[in-house]
Amino acid sequence: MLKTYTLTFHEKQFGGSIVPRQQAGLTTTVSRKNPFELLVALDENLQAKGNLLWDDGESIVENFKTHNYIELEFSIKSGLTTTLTIKRLSKGVIANVPKLTTIEIFGYDELIDYSSVRKNGNVMKTDFKKSVYDKSRKRLLLVADAFYDFTTDKDVTVTWKSYPITDYVPPQSRVNCAPGQDWPDGTACEQLGCLYDGRVRDNIPKCYFPKRSGYIATKTTADQVFLKPFDGVKNPFGDNISPIEFSTSTIDGTTTRIRIGTTGRFEPPLSIPRKSFSTGEKFVVETSDKTGVFSFSVKRSSTNHSIWDTSIG
User: Fold this and answer.
1) Cα–chain-centroid distance for residue 19?
2) Regions of the chain short of the pLDDT cut 70
3) β-strand 110-112 against 118-119: which pairing, if any?
4) Checking DSSP bridges between strand 17-22 and strand 36-41, what pairing results, if any?
5) What structural domains and CATH numbers belong to the chain?
6) Under 8 Å CB-to-CB from 149, ≥6 apart: which residues?
7) Contact assessment for residue 168 and residue 174, using Cβ atoms and an 8 Å cutoff
8) Is the distance from CB of 286 to CB of 307 less than 8 angstroms?
9) In the prediction, which pLDDT does 2 show?
């Protein structure tokens, strides 16, 4: 009779650990030929450590000091720049050791720039089809040709850059940070303060404005909000006008008028009716800084549904 056991693990018990692994095969001999992977569980300080010991899998250890084996030490520190350090602690020589091709990290709460992955300062080509970030599970899966090659590598430092997860914008809501320009990598995009995603297709912008872009409120009165540009992102079309004022008013109680501009600037004469007819509907304008910059939304009072929201993209 087959018995089933359920084991429950608390994440804090294993946070801070790096565990090397290989995909299982039908036999140990087959398993040992599969590429190495690292399973990383970050601790509360966004760090983790671990080791790998590897020998031929057959020799009996008579004297550990003279035994032929390979030992690697792993350490990782996550943040806006994540650094994975791999140190080779032994001088053992073993043929046909599989490469380290996959890093899986749990507790990762940043938005990775896949084009920024470097190995000892050199650009690494990541597998965009297999590499993925799961925001809900805070899980990053990073796949490349060889984060570590046992034949040629000794000490290795792997780095990559990330963006705050609060800056993430869904692909369908992204606004192109520099229309008309083709971005081969994220360097030029980063100089603008924008986010780069080289994996996207189907006319979705690779270089796009983060959520925290636009203006921030400096002063609020009963009927006006005074705004200045947010310094983190550059305007690709020139300098932002500063300061500007946000104000709202109603026409006959049923039409809402929103004005964004500066006092004294020329306003083209428009033949917009200054009077309105009653529809029975009223609108509420709400302002917010929940994304780190100023935004506003317009809600229909009868349904409380937003019909306009500048915080979305």
Assistant:
1) 24
2) 1-14, 183-184, 272-277, 312-313
3) unpaired
4) antiparallel
5) 17-165 (2.60.40.1180), 169-210 (4.10.110), 215-265+281-309 (no CATH)
6) 99, 100
7) no
8) no
9) 44
Whether the CB-CB separation of 16 and 105 falls below 8 Å is answered with: no
Spatial CA neighbour of 103 closest among 36, 12, 155: 36
Q: How many CB atoms lie within 10 A of CB 173?
A: 10
CB 104 within 8 A of CB 134: no
User: What residues pair up with 295 in beta bridges, in sequence order?
Assistant: 288
Q: Where are the beta strands (DSSP E) in 201-282?
A: 207-208, 215-220, 224-229, 244-251, 255-261
**What CA–CA distances, in Å, run from 283 to 226, 250, 276?**
22, 9, 14
Q: Which amino acid is at 129?
A: K
> What is the Cα–Cα distance from 174 to 206, expressed in whole angstroms?
9
Element (H, E) at 306: strand 305-309
CA distances from 120 to 64, 82, 123, 226 (A): 31, 13, 9, 47
Give the pLDDT score at 274.
65
